[in-house]
Write a structure and sequence with these properties.
The complex is a heterodimer of chains A (402) and B (388). Chain A has helices spanning 2-6, 24-53, 63-72, 107-116, 138-150, 175-180, 192-202, 219-229, 272-277, 301-313, 316-319, 347-355, and strands at 91-95, 120-123, 154-159, 184-187, 206-208, 236-237, 256-259, 261-271, 291-297, 322-329, 362-369, 377-379, 382-388, 391-396. Chain A is an alpha/beta fold and 402 residues long. Chain A folds into three domains: 2-54, no CATH class; 91-229, Rossmann fold (3-Layer(aba) Sandwich), CATH 3.40.50; 236-396, Glucose Oxidase, domain 1, CATH 3.50.30. Chain A is globular, with a radius of gyration of 20 Å. By secondary structure, chain B is an alpha/beta fold. Chain B folds into two domains: 3-32 and 58-195, Murein tetrapeptidase LD-carboxypeptidase, N-terminal domain (Rossmann fold), CATH 3.40.50.10740; 208-382, Glucose Oxidase, domain 1, CATH 3.50.30.60. Helices cover 35% and strands 18% of the residues of chain B. Chain B has an eight-stranded mixed sheet with strand order 6-14-13-8-9-10-11-7. The chains are: A alpha/beta (402), B alpha/beta (388). Chains A and B meet through helix 9 and helix 10 of A and helix 6, helix 10 and helix 11 of B.
């Protein structure tokens, strides 16, 4: 939080020229960022080169061929559409396609932090409505959502929070309208369904990251978020937040390698419960040759096992080039507070059982998902994953915005 | 729990199982060895004709009706029983029905929440499938783990020698996968550990024995015989007393006809998008679940809607959602509201509160048989027998 306050501007964060003039604290704090910037510049140039080189692309092991096809736009692959990145003074449209804020005044924090980032906002008509645990009826939420894409003033559609109910809208979303007006959309949890559906129906790059209700939760979250939506540079190497308090680490072990290997492919994924909810539907996740990222909340290990087993029965895991598992919050045995079985096995064991034998690299414990500190991952851009003994390199190679 | 602890515990239980099973078998004077020799003799040859028939047109394969003193395998394809005495109880239930129980070897193994490793549970199931003297498989308990067997079981073997398959909860994965892969009529009834009323007992017995039951499932059917389960706190209800009768609610009135299909909503959701997804065409769908949040149940029902299943089916009969709750949900509506609104939108007959599922009053629902569903009256009428 302190870090973010030191860095009110957004574009300046990524400007390495400013660095020597910063005070020591901010300098140390941004050292990571600068490292990324340096690498990403190179990566950008490289990916541009890859694109021009076309078929001669030989980087990566398993995912390379699929990635190459995607870049060359082979007929069965969709064309990737990138939204424009936000600049200061742009307006974001705040919607609630899933659940409403539990406490309506919390939105004041959102306004304050948007202002700090230099962004204006517009709110949907129905974001405080209520129908069951959704923010209003399906029709009203849908009307809000579609009207934000139609509004030329709105440069990004930002859900307030997840919860439940976004998948109920999928059949009514105007995908043609979205394809005509590519905009940034960021979310996680229940919003995963929108991200996957919109990405696969229109080719638009969507972002798995914090929402309006909490993009200011932590400095790591905030910086990564603004870097993703307010810059057109590749996100580059994903680095973890510096663990100041190592005495009592929360969350999973960082970057625990379940299976070693190298992979390259487009990113896709999100919250496992939602990926499961889309199985058998026209919005079912396509993992073919992609790097799949997964996270979840409030699921017992056996429920995670059920979801992963279903994905493997459908061939989704086998087709992926690599798998990155983020934080699974409250997913330890008994953690969800419901359906806990005696002698349940641990989540780590389940992940090992289900994911270690696929012959693709699998890493567990990156900081994304329902944790307070999370990075923003764009769906549909090229990424690479290298998992070896004691080191994991997870890199977003391509820029996600124009 | 460490591996050592696991191991020591498992061996301890293992020896216990053996003693228990042999005691059960000896007590009833069954000869274990004689049955073991019966396997794999009259397989394959005779049944190839029936396979070809079933493949050509998606015909329904009906298992043979159970006769007195037929052998019934008691298996745990999913979770482990909470206590070994549940196996004894299941043995007693099967004997009271007039059949001869055979307890699977690995039913009391422990592997996490499951009754043994995948291989051990599969071995039990495969053994029962290939044993021609066994006419039916009754699942003892639910839990989690049956999904792991779905892609490992040789379904063609089941098709070749159809057996009665009874279960619910997680075992519903097996029922639906068997129906999807072979067209076999399977039986959704409370697992043996959840048969706690005379009503459930009689319904199961009638479904697996009677050649021509033509029975009807009514929504206000409730008659618990408390003496059946001494530990139950539930009081017997008097169906004559209107205050004690469970009423149904029809969100959309109307009639529907088609094969009865469905079961546990969580299990049905786990088979979506896989090769084991059951056919929805014209089906009268029945759904039930246990110990689940309304928000999660709405997710899986939305999954069916997005997959187009709700427009393919002819109606939905919602069974018992026991201990399903609105806990930790923000202003959560009831399932009647959430599902009912969706069904109103689809315009398909649907009613709530049918005695199907895993509660004390639950009846047996044979998956695959043709039924007539009347949402307004809250009844399901069987148009054909479940067994041949």
């Amino acid at each position: 939080m302190e870090l973010s306050e030191k860095l009110p501007g957004t574009s300046s964060i990524f400007n390495s020229e400013n660095l020597p003039r910063r005070d020591l604290l901010a300098g140390i704090a941004t050292a990571l960022m600068v490292g990324i910037t340096g690498q990403t510049d190179a990566a950008d140039a490289k990916s541009q080169k890859d694109r021009s080189a076309g078929k001669k692309n030989t980087q990566g092991s398993r995912g390379s061929s699929d990635g190459k096809n995607a870049i060359n736009g082979s007929p069965e692959q969709m064309t990737i559409v990138k939204p424009k990145h936000l600049v200061k003074g742009d307006t974001v449209g705040i919607v609630a396609p899933a659940s409403p804020l539990e406490n309506e005044t919390e939105i004041e924090y959102t306004y304050k932090w948007l202002k700090r980032a230099g962004l204006k906002y517009k709110i949907g008509k129905h974001i405080f409505d209520s129908y069951s645990d959704f923010a209003g009826s399906d029709e009203n939420r849908l009307a809000d959502f579609n009207s934000m894409w139609a509004d030329p003033e709105v440069k990004a559609v930002m859900p307030m929070r997840g919860g439940n109910g976004a998948a109920r809208l999928l059949a009514g979303i105007d995908y043609e309208l979205i394809a005509k007006n590519p905009k940034i959309i960021v979310g996680y949890s229940d919003i995963t369904s929108l991200l996957i559906a919109i990405h696969q129906k229109t080719g638009l790059v969507t972002f798995h990251g914090p929402m309006m209700g909490g993009f200011f939760e932590g400095s790591y979250t905030y910086c990564n978020y603004l870097k993703a939506v307010m810059s057109n540079k590749p996100l580059g190497l994903i680095t973890d937040k510096e663990e100041k308090e190592l005495w009592n680490p929360l969350g999973p072990p960082t970057r625990y390698v379940i299976a070693k290997g190298k992979a390259r492919g487009r990113l896709t994924g999100g919250c496992m419960t939602l990926i499961r909810q889309l199985m058998g539907t026209p919005y079912e996740i396509d993992t073919d040759g992609k790097i799949l990222f997964l996270e979840d909340l409030d699921a017992e290990p056996h429920e995670i096992d059920r979801m992963l087993y279903q994905l493997s029965l459908a061939g989704k895991l086998q087709k992926a080039a690599g798998i990155v598992v983020g934080e699974c919050t409250n997913c330890a045995p008994g953690g969800s507070g419901r359906n806990n079985f005696p002698l349940n096995v641990s989540l780590d064991r389940i992940l090992e059982q289900r994911l270690s034998g696929l012959g693709i690299p699998v890493v567990y414990g990156l900081r994304f998902g329902h944790s307070k500190e999370k990075c923003t991952l764009p769906l549909g851009v090229m990424a690479s994953l290298e998992a070896t003994d004691g080191s994991v390199r997870f890199k977003i190679e391509e820029s996600a915005t124009l | 729990m460490s591996a050592d602890q696991y191991l020591s515990r498992r061996t301890l239980i293992k020896s216990g199982t053996k003693a228990l099973i042999s005691a059960a078998i000896l007590a009833k004077g069954m000869d274990k060895m004689a049955e073991a020799k019966n396997l794999s003799k009259q397989e394959s040859g005779t049944s190839n004709a029936t396979i070809a028939e079933a493949v050509q047109s998606r015909t329904i394969v009906k298992p043979n009706a159970l006769k007195p003193s037929d052998r019934v395998a008691l298996l745990c394809p999913a979770g482990r029983p909470h206590s070994p005495s549940l196996i004894n109880r299941a043995v007693a239930i099967v004997e009271e029905m007039g059949f001869r129980p055979k307890v699977g070897k690995n039913t009391l193994k422990i592997h996490g929440t499951m009754a043994g490793t995948d291989e051990e549970r599969l071995a039990d199931f495969e053994e029962a499938l290939s044993d021609d003297s066994i006419a039916a498989i009754f699942c003892v308990t639910g839990g989690y783990g049956a999904l792991h067997l779905v892609d490992k079981i040789d379904w063609m073997k089941l098709k070749a020698s159809p057996k009665i398959l009874v279960g619910s909860d997680d075992n519903c994965h097996l029922l639906l996968a068997a129906y999807a892969k072979t067209g076999l009529v399977t039986f959704h009834a409370p697992n043996m550990d959840r048969i706690v009323s005379r009503q459930s007992f009689d319904a199961l017995k009638a479904a697996v024995t009677a050649k021509n039951p033509h029975s009807t499932v009514k929504s206000n059917y409730w008659d618990i015989d408390d003496s059946f389960d001494g530990t139950s706190q539930k009081k017997a209800r008097n169906p004559e007393d209107k205050w004690q009768v469970d009423y149904s609610y029809a969100a959309v009135e109307g009639q529907a006809e088609g094969p009865l299909m469905g079961g546990n909503l969580t299990a049905l959701g786990s088979l979506m998008g896989t090769p084991y997804q059951p056919p929805f065409k014209n089906a009268v769908l029945f759904l039930e679940d246990i110990n689940e949040d309304h928000g999660i149940l709405d997710r899986w029902f939305t999954n069916l809607y997005l997959a187009g299943a709700l427009s393919e089916i002819s109606g939905v009969a919602f069974g018992d959602f026991e201990n399903c709750r609105t806990k930790e949900c923000f202003n959560m509506y009831s399932l009647e509201d959430l599902f009912g609104d969706r069904m109103k939108q689809e315009g398909k007959p649907c009613s709530f509160g049918l005695p199907l599922g895993q509660s004390a009053r639950s009846l047996t629902a044979p998956i695959g048989v043709r039924v007539r569903f009347d949402a307004g009256k809250g009844t399901i009428e069987y148009l054909e027998t479940a067994v041949s």
